[in-house]
Amino acid sequence: MKTTLTEENYLKALFHLVDNEGKVTINELSKFLNVKMPSVNNMMKKFAEKKWVIYETYKPLIVTESGRREAALVVRKHRLTEMFLVKKMNFGWENVHEIAEQLEHVHSQIFFDKMDEILDYPKFDPHGEPIPDKDGNIISQDLQKLSNCEPGENVTFASVTLSDDAFLTYLNDRKLLLNTKVRVVKVESFDKSMTIEIDGKTEILSKKATEKILVKK
Description:
The protein has 217 residues and is α+β, with helices and mostly antiparallel strands. The protein contains eight helices and nine strands. It is found in: Cytoplasm.
């Protein structure tokens, strides 16, 4: 049975919000989706009927393995589309999120499998986030926030936690792109803004920005 657009949006929210124990609350979903609690409750009861979640009143939802897979497959469509737009249609990484939001609801599995093949089976999207495979499996990454790094550390920019076009344009303006080598020069004690060095040039990043940049050592 095909999932509806609304169901897919809920599934994607579950994917982003679920904790390490496979749990998420109705309140978290309500805030994330900007949907009233009764509506979220009704949808989660339907998800429970589909065996995607375990639903008990006043308790956190438990996302089942079936629910996790369904959620990952929605995210797969979104991230493959973003990669296709960047690699094959020359869109900037700051311009693809909204388009992918629309195309992720196409139901043709063959369409996305062909997209995957054309792209030579990428493991990550343009923002550095892992692309689930067609079975819903996803690569785990050992990344940390740039804001947690200390002066003198050398790291590689691996991913962002925010695909907002304003934020990505902010990074473009500073020539800070994925896989860029970064050296932390200084962290201001007052506002935690950070001076970094890229290719011998220094840039100052706000705490708000360093919180949303993920790096690997």
